[in-house]
Write a structure and sequence with these properties.
alpha+beta; Alpha-Beta Plaits; 4 strands; globular
Length: 150
């Protein structure tokens, strides 16, 4: 094959530092647009985004030219710097240090988009901490409670 063709779909989850409720309804659309812009800058596509006041879910089609860890470093650093310019209430904004990333197949896109779109309803009954542990369990990812939260 003379060219490189890839489909790398990743469900990414991360929270604000200490899961503080800092993502307001007013800033949320602009934040997701900004995250999508960073992804585009690195030849990746944000297919959908959603979350609550303390965390985000991203469905990203990852470029063949960037490592996931590098893209997440750019997304988190760039968006944290940007959000701090959006008003005094965001001056102390920080993302948590880590993230969860889960590979998915193309057939899972519609269901995942629905799941991400319903985050606010979903979290009426379940905390972010419970949700993340469920995702880690579903995908068979071992973790140490000592290092899971910051």
């Amino acid at each position: 094959m003379s060219q490189t063709l890839v489909s790398l779909l990743v469900h990414i989850v991360f929270s604000t530092k200490h899961r503080e409720a800092l993502i307001t309804a007013e800033i949320e659309p602009s934040l997701y647009a900004y995250l999508g812009g960073i992804a585009r800058t690195h030849q990746s596509r944000l297919l959908t985004a959603g979350g609550t006041a303390n965390h985000v879910h991203l469905l990203i089609s990852l470029s063949k030219t960037i490592a996931l860890s590098d893209l997440l470093e750019k997304i988190k650093a760039g968006s944290s710097k940007w959000i701090k310019t959006q008003g005094t209430q965001f001056r102390a904004f920080h993302w948590q240090d880590g993230y969860g990333a889960f590979s998915i197949g193309a057939s899972q896109i519609p269901a995942l988009k629905t799941y991400i779109g319903r985050q606010k309803e979903h979290h009426v009954k379940k905390t972010f901490e419970e949700e993340l542990i469920e995702l880690l369990t579903k995908y068979g990812i071992e973790y140490n409670d000592k290092y899971l939260w910051d």
